[in-house]
């Protein structure tokens, strides 16, 4: 357990960052997998399941991140986020829509007044391979167009090369460019390869000012695997103890079913703690997940299994 | 975990948790959120009980001798009860001398006339059949075991039953390959085996005994524990279903006296016992000079060594799993935590937080982590030793947890301020009680870990490979789990040094006890 | 020893006789009890007085063996093999003495005694070769179902009390002692009560063969006096009852008190036969080590 977090303001040296990050307790991969698998055997039924499904819906960052995205596609997505189940006025809204930066204005217009946020990926998503100036311009533009949340990617190349200072500086700079928007830092854990790296990247991002740490872009497999989410939840838990600041976690990519979403909530509860059972501190980046959550809701409500044709595809 | 000397939290996040200032609200109000607002509140898992309807309990059970269930000549019986609510489950025979004689004679006959000379490949097929039937009836067996033992369904379902099936599957394959078991080109079976198993893993311990015995060409008379006889009797049905020749496996139920009659029976060529060191000692004494072979798997006081460079989160899991698995009713439990002083405080903080998540209650609930203590007698023993710990000045801590009113329950408990001299650090408690000691150097850790008459298991947690190997080499224990704990496998030999007994179960080594 | 009277004017030389002492912790002490007992040849002729070890000597020997155990067990197997081979070399150099003592003790003819000495020397060589092979033969990798490295390896059990066979005072003696120490155990051996002199000679060989003090401790005396305290001693891990005779059952019962590993006597034992692993295995523990495999 680190005694100190990394100072965002002090622009720490690479050596100081390295000493800190490599001084974190290691992660035994097999043990972490077993813990995650053990939590997956928790059974959530009846009333608890209903509450969990609603909470999961409210945690969804409904996402479209395709080269073929259009204003029309984004408007449809926004409508879905606002009112996921037209047949059930009780169904809550999703947390946000998540789009590319050039479509932020469309999205912002489409969710106006609904309480649904607009998240924009920025910083040369998904690879992150662009000059910092370009990344900052991308970020500023998205915020100016109405993004309430920025999902940035870290420079995995720099991270893997041991240039932690560069990663830290970029996050700090983007943080600055975000202004009032919340910053989610995408670690792209599938490229970090080890859980030790996931833990280090989590602390690096938190220390540089991330409001959220996010697993993946969704463009690289594996994405939000249970052990990765487990390690990130441990990081935010320990960071709270060390600094008093609660950072959110967002698994993205690979969570497609209500069952997987609920397993994530169980992990949140037992690893980070109930405080994180809140859209302010836990999000799920997804697209097809939402309909499965709605189908499960319908099943609980009506007692009959639902069919996909009864839920809108956007 | 102080943040005093740390920098201030960066701006922007502003401790958004638990407030309405979360990012989702930036776009406006949250008027259309109709879902129940649980934000920051615990998700209460609703009860998820496994159905007991898969089990058809009989009112009374006869012993299984020579392929049949027939009333015991002794006429005695005992009642086995559900430890979680003390409700009686069934009446079970207490076999006497005549019954044990009959079972031993049946085993001898089956050995002489059928089993010994059956080609190994054919013997093996019976074991494969048994493995498959155990898998097919897994749900039923798991529920029955949980009812009779009190352990969580999660464990019987995911561990006891699949592992028992795996033991039969593993040993089935040995039956026609015994020439490769390292006992010479033409090893012979030993003969008739008298086997007594404990109540902590009733079916699994049966599998550990019967599978290698049968694979090697021996026949067996097995006595399950007084308080957990039902899964062995269900196993007898499995033998019938597999059409195992009569007499190859015999199950005699009863109490300590039945066990004594069995292990001292002159018809036994080999005796195998798993249980307390005290009883094991008595058996070793009784068999002295008889020439009968004996293996013993006895008690332990396993040390779990946590170095300051350990992967702490996994070490916490390992320590929790090490001592609270199966309510601590595990001979190889890591009941002594030896944590390096430099991380002790932080480790204990994490450990307590983790213990607070353990769910104690209805063993049939799939979310239960800690079930019931198997018997009133065992509960009394745990209580007495825990009381000794307090009286000797150690500090006890348990997470807040409500114990059910009926049944036998003991909360997960950790003792700090323990020294080697405390009884809780020396005696096997066989319950969910962890004693915490600290050390400063690797030499001290090893010296303290080995400072016990037992030698069954030990754990070591470090991210440094050479230190792990150095430590493992010096630990006087039959099983060393490094960066893990309480892992078992049919291919992996298990058994102790010193007063934890002798002989190994599992793997090629385990066959040695059943071959001559 | 017969004394020779020389012809001539010189005064007859008085032979220097050997005092037969115990061998404990690498030293040759007298019994703390100050006792000795007469040893006779096969045909009843007085040969020498041998030290008669007491219970306290047995206790001291166990303490010496315990002290030597970690160091000896921690030696490389190759090194232990070299030390055992050195014992064979040293014995070879003293063939004549061993043959003479054996002939006197058993009444065997000289060629027969020579053959037994050869067999005893060869047995050291045999076990010298086992030291770095038994772990491969008896241990191995276990293919467990999961992401774990899992290995089993034999380790010495600790301090072994050995009751040397009463007959076969040399080949039997080496046959029980060598396998115990070969694998890293340390031994407290009670020599053949009737014919202890080859054991004393062997102690002298061991003392000059790089075997660390305390690894092999050799007591002479009454088996019935030495065996019970050894069998009951809580710091003894295992017991070889080869020479226990009538005492075997009672000693096994005493050994049960601390769950000692017991090698029961085999009435049909043939010391000349290839022993294989039969006397190595009983004094080994199998240790199994698990470790996760991951990044």
Helix content class of chain C: 25-40%
**Percent of residues of chain A in helical segments?**
40-55%
- Alpha plus pi helix count of chain C: 9
* Gross geometry of chain A: globular
How many strands of chain A? 8
The second-level CATH architecture of chain A is: Alpha-Beta Barrel
Describe the structure.
The complex is a heterotrimer of chains A (314), B (516) and C (295). By secondary structure, chain A is an alpha/beta fold. Chain A has one domain (23-301): Alpha-Beta Barrel (TIM Barrel), CATH 3.20.20. Chain A is 48% helix and 11% strand. Chain A is built from 13 helices and 8 strands. An 8-stranded parallel beta sheet of chain A has the order 7-6-5-4-3-2-1-8. In chain A, α6 links the parallel β3 (117-122) and β4. The model of chain A has no long low-confidence stretch (mean pLDDT 95). By secondary structure, chain B is α/β, with parallel strands linked by helices. Chain B folds into 2 domains: 52-298 and 504-514, Aldehyde Dehydrogenase, Chain A, domain 1, CATH 3.40.605; 303-489, Aldehyde Dehydrogenase, Chain A, domain 2. Chain B has 15 helices and 18 strands. Chain B has a 7-stranded mixed beta sheet, sandwiched between helices. In chain B, α3 (138-149) crosses α4 and α9 crosses α10. The longest helix of chain B has 20 residues, at 153-172. Chain C is α/β, with parallel strands linked by helices and 295 residues long. Chain C has one domain: Aldehyde Dehydrogenase, Chain A, domain 1 (3-Layer(aba) Sandwich). Chain C has helices at residues 55-74, 77-92, 95-106, 110-130, 134-138, 171-182, 197-207, 223-232, 248-256; strands at 36-40, 46-51, 140-141, 148-156, 159-163, 186-190, 216-219, 238-240, 261-263, 284-292. The longest helix of chain C has 21 residues, at 110-130. The relative contact order of chain C is 0.17. Classes of the chains: A alpha/beta (314), B alpha/beta (516), C alpha/beta (295). Chains in contact: A-B, A-C, B-C.
